[in-house]
Amino acid sequence: ETGVTQSPTHLIKTRGQQVTLRCSSQSGHNTVSWYQQALGQGPQFIFQYYREEENGRGNFPPRFSGLQFPNYSSELNVNALELDDSALYLCASSLGRVSEQYFGPGTRLTVT
Amino acid sequence: AQTVTQSQPEMSVQEAETVTLSCTYDTSENNYYLFWYKQPPSRQMILVIRQEAYKQQNATENRFSVNFQKAAKSFSLKISDSQLGDTAMYFCAFMKSPRETSGSRLTFGEGTQLTVNP
Q1: pLDDT tens across A50-93, in order?
Q2: Could you say which residues from 56 to 95 on chain B have a Cβ atom under 8 Å away from some Cβ of chain A?
Q3: Do A98 and B33 touch (CB under 8 A)?
Q4: Is A66 at the interface with chain B, CB within 8 A?
Q5: Is a pLDDT exceeding 90 seen at residue B112?
Q6: Fewer Cβ within 10 Å of end Cβ, chain A: N or C?
Q7: Long-range contacts of A4-10 (CB under 8 A, 24+ apart)
Q8: B107 interaction partners in chain A (CB closer than 8 Å)
Q9: pLDDT higher than threshold 80 for residue B103
């Protein structure tokens, strides 16, 4: 059984650029959630995808958007990057919306 | 909105001893789930234990157990026979029963950094 994977591991971008982060869910999982974890803080919910549709969104602006594909992998896109977007981005997958969420290793994004 | 509070930013314990991490939460929901996650320096968030609010029995997973007090909205984690590999940031998390429009988001506390000393 393959766990949750994320790519890339690290990324450095310039303010104003756009970035795409990728997540492959654990085998058999149909739900993907994205979280932003600033340094020294707990993760904050960005949004969740369930069967390819957005199913809940946290307090993040529209420049944070996402997709889920038929194989349940997912992308997180961030436009017009700001310095405060620098964080660890975590993806979590689950089987359905009630079961435990299993996390990937994260993508460390640095915006300069 | 739900909030989760972890009042101990840092804790330390000697190897083989027992330590308890505290967590309180605030919610008006009756059906929900509580979790403890561990995040070692590798950054991978690892599920430690899960508790359903409708279950009165406290969850246990090997050396890890919880003390769930629903009326007090308290959810502490006890680690017995602490091991060096338990050194990590521990997050308490809350999830209410999913809705069609709100999904099943986790709300995390700020974390407790646990150090196990040899």
Answers
A1: 888 998 899 999 999 999 999 999 999 999 999 999 999 999 99
A2: 91, 93
A3: yes
A4: no
A5: yes
A6: N
A7: A4/A91, A4/A92, A4/A93, A4/A102, A4/A103, A4/A104, A5/A104, A5/A105, A6/A89, A6/A90, A6/A91, A6/A104, A6/A105, A6/A106, A6/A107, A7/A107, A8/A107, A9/A105, A9/A107, A9/A108, A10/A107, A10/A108, A10/A110
A8: 45
A9: no
**Min Cα separation B82/chain A (Å):** 23
Which residues in chain A have Cβ-Cβ distances shorter than 8 Å to B47?
100-102
Q: How many residues does chain A have?
A: 112
Judge whether residue A95 has pLDDT over 90.
no
In this structure, which amino acid lies at residue A43?
P
Amino acid at A56: G
pLDDT of residue A1: 59
Cβ distance of B108 and A44 shorter than 8 Å: yes
Omega prior to A8 cis, within 30 of 0: yes
Asked if the model's pLDDT at residue B80 lies above 70, the reply is: yes
CA distance B45 to chain A (A): 6
Helices within B1-118 (DSSP H only): none
> The tokens of A7 are what?
């790519």
CA distance B9 to B55: 29
| A102:B103 CB<8 A | no
